[in-house]
Amino acid sequence: MKKVTLILLLYVVCAAALLATADDKKKAGILFGGNEKLMRKVGLQLYSLRNQFKSDVPGTLAKAKQMGFVNVELAGTYGLTPEQFNAELDKAGLRPVSMHAGYEKLRDDLNSVIREAKTFGVQYVGCAWIPHGKTFTEADCDRAIAHFNEWGGKLAKEGLRFFYHIHGYEFQPAANGTLFDKLVTGTKPQHVALEMDVFWVVWPGQDPVKLMKKYPKRVELLHLKELRKGMTGNLSGGAPPEAETALGEGQVNWPAVLREAERQGVKYMFIEDETPQVERQVPMSLQYLRTVRY
Question: Are 57 and 78 in contact (CB under 8 A)?
Fold first, then answer.
């Protein structure tokens, strides 16, 4: 009888521990599924909910948390000061780990960008667009290289990591490959990381896995965004909303991308959805990531 009682007691203790662990994950807002290691790196680029933010900032942040996110990447504060927006992030239980800043603001007022980054407590500060005319040129690329190295060096002294977010127009042909090749080889790895937006790599006909292999350890962040089957793009840096769909429903070979990202040691991955169906598609994309085999 004592042996049976002991076994039952151990069973109860183990069951309680498992329930506590599950509850802790639920409280943390992380719904791992079968890919716990991957899902710990997955966050949301809040620009996905830009239209929702126009009418309700606290409610939209709460919605992001309810979807299952903890980590987020910032792209603006939607009418609030950085301090006010950070307070709302805290209330919602969201943790900003990365932020975008405009090229002009980085160029003209880097100190204010640094102050904002420290207000939010982010690790990464990046630029998502290099100003240029109808076509991205070698002169545009040279100017960006100089600025990126400068900003990256200054941000590094403040304990921040600078990155450039790939946007598709950089793959213009150049003397030794493309202007993207020139941009990567011209920037200092110790000061400039890359955020690979998978959509903006596949849209102009490039291979994200090959690029990661070509420039090992340069890609530290990913944007997880899907290109719809049958769609082909160009070098404009723009695409219609209907070109996107939920992860796993398009033409990207996600298992190959995720395997290589893991091999490269990518730190964070952010779902970004710029379609009108964002509230329906983001949960679908999350579910795909929880179950995809790679």
Answer: yes
How far apart, in whole angstroms, are the C-alpha atoms of residue 288 and residue 263? 20
Identify the pLDDT of residue 34.
81
High-pLDDT (> 70) share of the chain, %: 89
What is the value of pTM for the model shown?
0.89
Q: Coil, strand, or helix at residue 186?
A: helix
Tens of pLDDT along 88-128? 999 999 999 999 999 999 999 999 999 999 999 999 999 99
Burial of 210 (0-12, 13-18, 19+ CB in 10 A): exposed
- Quick one: 123 exposed, middle or buried, by C-beta within 10 A (0-12, 13-18, 19+)? middle
- What gap in Å lies between CA 51 and CA 82, rounded to an integer? 19
Cβ-Cβ contacts under 8 Å for 98 (sequence gap 6 or more): 43, 73, 74, 122, 123, 124, 125, 126, 163, 195, 221, 268, 270
Q: Is 280 helix (H, G, I), strand (E, B) or coil?
A: helix
Rounded Cα distance between 137 and 134, Å, is 9
What separation in angstroms does the CA of 264 have from each of 68, 152, 259, 285? 25, 21, 9, 22
pLDDT tens for 253-271 read 999 999 999 999 999 999 9
